[in-house]
Every structure is written in C-alpha cells, then in structure tokens.
Amino acid sequence: MKDKKKTTHIFQSEVKELLHLMIHSLYSNKEIFLRELISNASDAIEKIRFEKLYNPEKYSKNNYIPKIQISIKKTEKQIIISDNGIGMTYKEVIKNLGTIAKSGTKSFLEKINNIEKKEKNEFIGQFGVGFYSSFIVSETVSVYTKHASNKEKNGTLWISNGKGEYSVETIPMEEYGTKIILLLKDSEKEFLESWKIKQIIKKYSDHISIPIEIENYDKKTKTISWEKINEAQALWTQNKNNITKESYQKFYTYITHDSEKPLIWSHNRVEGNQEYINLLYIPKKATWDMWHRENKHGLKLYVKHIFIMDEATQFLPNYLRFVKGIIDSQDLPLNISREILQDSSITHILRKSLTKRVLNMLNTLSEQEKKQYQEFWNVFGLVIKEGLAEDSENQKTISNLLRFSSIQTKTKEQILSLKEYTDNMIEGQKKIYFITADSYKSALNSPHLEIFKEKNIDVLLLSDRIDEWMMNYLIEFNKIQFQSVSKADQSLDDLVSNKKIDTNKNKFDNFIEKIKKVLNNKVKNVRITYRLKNTPAMVLTDSNDMSTQMAKIFSAAGQPVPKIKYILEINPIHPLIKKIKKIEDQEIFSNWIEVLFEQSILAEKGNLDNPHLFINRINKLFLL
Q: Is 126 helix (H, G, I), strand (E, B) or coil?
C-alpha cells in the first residue's frame, strides 16, 4: 500500500448534524459511549474470526486470542480502547467514519427529536451510529487502525474534534486491529477512574463472549498487568437455571440496542438428531424499519459457539421478523454461506422447530398473560396476520393468536379471539360473520350489520388494509366457516326467512322489474331484503365475485380491477321505498332509483365514479 500524506476532509452533512446532536444534546447518560465502542470492537473481532474460517489463505491461522483492552492515562486525560479485530483499510476509514451511507441516519435524526431526552442515549445503537457517541465526552477522538489483510507495516490514523472536519493519514503500524484514543473534556474526568470503567463494563458488556481487560499499573514494582472485567462467557451456552432475569434482559439490550426490555424470551438447548441452542426474544416495540422493504432482521447465527453471520433470515418466516435472538448449531458446517444455508436440510429442520417454538411462546402468553399479549398484538398484530398466507402448516396456531374488533366488543382495539367469538355464537348460528371496511367506524356503521345488531349476532369488524387479503386464507376456524356479510350467501337470507316474508316478497315483483329496467346492466340483480331496518337499500357482491375491499387493494397497487356488478337489495318496509313505489312519473321514478343505487354504492365503496351527476339528481329531487 502506498503511503498517503495527511489530508483533511469535511464531514457529510448528516454526520455534522449527528455530531452536533451528540455534543450539545445528549447529556443524560454519557457512559453509553463506552458501551458503543466496546460493541464495535466486539463486532470487529467476530468479523476476523469469521474471515479466518472462510479465507485461511488470506488471514493467518496463528493461535488467535481475541481481546479488548482498556487503558486509562489520567495525566493525559485519555481513555484508550484497543481490539485485535479485523481493523479497517484507508478507504474504509473514510467511508465508515466520515460518511454514513445508511438510510437509517435520517430516520435516527427524525426519531431522536421526537423522544424524551432521557431515552435518547439508549436509542443510539439501533441505527449504527454508536461511534459518534465518543464525542459526548471527548475533545478529540483518534482512531489508529490496520486491516487484517494488510501485510505491510503501515495503518491509518483518523483524527477529529467533531466540529466539522477530520484528518486521515498513513502511519507506521505493526499489528492489525483498532486503537481508539479519547482525549476527554475537563468535565468528564470521572471516566478516568478504573472503578467507573469497571462499573460501566459490568452494566452493559458483562456477557460479551470476548474478554475485556483493563490495564493495572503497580507503582511499587513498576509493572503492568491486565485484569479481566467481564464474565466473557456466551450467555446462551450457560445453564438457564443459573441465569437471572436481569442477565437475560441485559443480553437482549446488548444484541438489539433496544431501550425497552423484551416482552418475553425462550432459552432452550436441543439434543437429538439436531443439536443446537436457541435464545429467542419477543420485543415490546417494533423497530423503526419493520415495514421497510430493506428491513434487516433475522437471528444471529453461531456454529459451535463461533459467530458466523448476523441477520440470518433463513431460520424464521418473514411474518416473525420481529423476533430477535441467537441460534447456535453444532451440526452446520463452519464455512456455511447464506446460499448454502438457504438450501440446507438442517436449516429447514431448524426453521420448522424455531417457528413452532415462537408460536407456542406467543400462544402461552395469550392464554396466561392476556394483558401482556394484548400489548404484543397492538404492536405486531398486522405482522402476525401475514402468517396466514405465508405459513399454511401453522395456520391453526396463528388463527388462535388473532384478535379482532366486533360489534359486541364496542371498542376499536382488537381484543376478541376467534375462540371467544365461537364460544359466544347464538343457538343455530352456522358461520363466523365478518365485514371489511376502510375504517372501524365505517365497518361499525355499515347497513349490512342492521339485522345482526337486532338479533344480537356478533360480527367481526375488519378495517386493517391487510384484512381483506388475510380473509382469503382464513377459510374456517374449528370447522366453522367464515362469511362476509357484504357477500350474498344463503345463511344471510336464513336470518330473516319465513313463509310470511317470502309471501310478501312476491308483492314487489312489478316494482323490482321497474327498478331493473332503470338500472339495466349497472347491477347484477335487484331483490327484496328484510335484513335492513333503518336503511332503504344496500348493495352486496355475489359470492364468487371480487369484494369491494379487494378491488380497492388492487387499485391502490396499480393493478387492473374488473368492474364489479353489485346486487341491489331493497328494504320494502322503509318509508322512502314505500314513497318511491307509488311514483308514476317515469323520469322522477328513474331519478329516485338512480339516487338510491348511487347512495348504496357510496355507502359501500366510500366514493362514486361521478359524484357531480349524483348531486345533480339530488338537486332535481329537492325541487319537486
């Protein structure tokens, strides 16, 4: 590598904003700078371990002993954090410490301004900007680094005071790794005490599997010794009976950078045909990017306790992407790649097992800790709904986890399980009824529900965008079929069917024929209904036709939508229908029928193709 003279660079604008925030706004918990730097050092060591496995010809296979070391120089006001991890090249230094190419930076800056000050420090690690927390306590930060693949006797030095510029130069350097020197501000002298550093390490980094050592100097003998601070044993490899609740929670914070404690977790060692350990966490809150297409998720994969890869998505289906944790396999090869992992029979077995474990964990929570489960559902319910389409094998278990609003729950919050719904079905009820709409209020006030409210039959109110799509896969529950109340079905007719009503229907044959002539091919059919009480008419789709909500989904996605021909149902006992039935003037009668039909379409779809024409018709009728 050709030596490069010292050059000065200007920080990327996002980094400037970030540094300003770090230096001037984040004071509540300054000690997190050490947590973040040790986390980065740990990642660098995991990377070199990985590279030594994959590219032994490129990286020497000497007796590698990973270590993170901390030295305190009181006189110089310095803290030095060193690691023998993979290090950085000259280009990587500029890329990683001068610019932030991640879309997460903007989201971080937006989020950080909308949360309480006391939580801001805890939020840093979630967006991969932890290095810059050094400037909370430092006047100057110097980074000495050399990449492990560099066989020459030089490395790179990066220096900045965090005020807009940084310098980079090539320097002599024998060993690979990274050394960070923090020149502390006068106000931060408490971090020059060994007891304080030990306290912080114990608090945040005790369960990092890499030894963290602090330098001790004996003035009498004038010798240096290194004292291990952390436990340095991978938590998941320990006997779970010996692990405290607090230790599990701290480890979760370490691997996720989440400021919240996890909702629940499951720690298991499995032996038999497959031998592996898993430690799975269910968070309380969703990550900032859970709905982004580039969302990174998955488990940390270890093989024989050696870190292999982050975000291994192969071990859980996408609808469980909120799950965090570790899987440590004894059976996968150490040189496993993402491509091979995808097709591995061992992976498929582990995926099946881990999926069932997560679902069982959630099922137990839903039965034993209903309040906690409701918290989970309010955050992750939409993601769980995806599972009905994605995971047919576990559809029954997923169905048990679903929660809904309904007529009888009288709340927008989705709190009703399907088991509770079926347990409360009235005598003779054959199906589970539901309605999909754009909003909870729209669903609750739909004319389709009038007969159900009168007969005290509950109806599920589905207003999430995913619900219509979901119901294509949720066909039955405990052998009871689902039925949309906005689609034609015999069970709906049976709710009001009796001989007297059937006889009365025949009296309206001529009226119905007149309506059909007015609407012509705009409708599929016109018929009398006694399901309505307060509404003159409504439309519904035929049993085999696309629903209104599905058509909206297609349209929003830019897909072609087949024209829906609705069935118009007329309420013969409504005063307006009785009035229209008596009208003899054909033009006035036609206007009333058109208005009645468009009114029903508006109630069903929420919009009209030609609202201006609808308004003109109403205005004409007002003038009569």
A: helix
**Burial environment of residue 323 by CB neighbours within 10 A (0 to 12, 13 to 18, 19 or more):** buried
pLDDT for 396 beyond 80: yes
Which residues have CB under 8 Å from 524's CB, separation 6+? Answer: 542, 545, 565, 566, 567
- Whether 120 has a pLDDT exceeding 60, the answer reads no
**What CATH number should be reported for the domain whose range is 7-228?**
3.30.565.10
Can you give the residue ranges of every domain in the chain?
7-228, 235-368, 403-485, 494-622
Q: Say whether 171 sits in a helix, a strand or coil.
A: strand
Which of the four pLDDT bands, split at 50, 70 and 90, describes residue 230?
confident
Q: HSE (CB half, 13 Å, CA atoms) of 173?
A: 27
Q: Which of 527, 518, 534 is nearest to 598 (CA)?
A: 518
Superfamily of domain 494-622: Heat shock protein 90, C-terminal domain (1.20.120.790)
Q: Are 253 and 226 in contact (CB under 8 A)?
A: no
Per-chain mean pLDDT for the chain: 87
Is domain 235-368 in CATH 1.10.10.10, yes or no?
A: no
Q: State pTM to two decimals.
A: 0.74
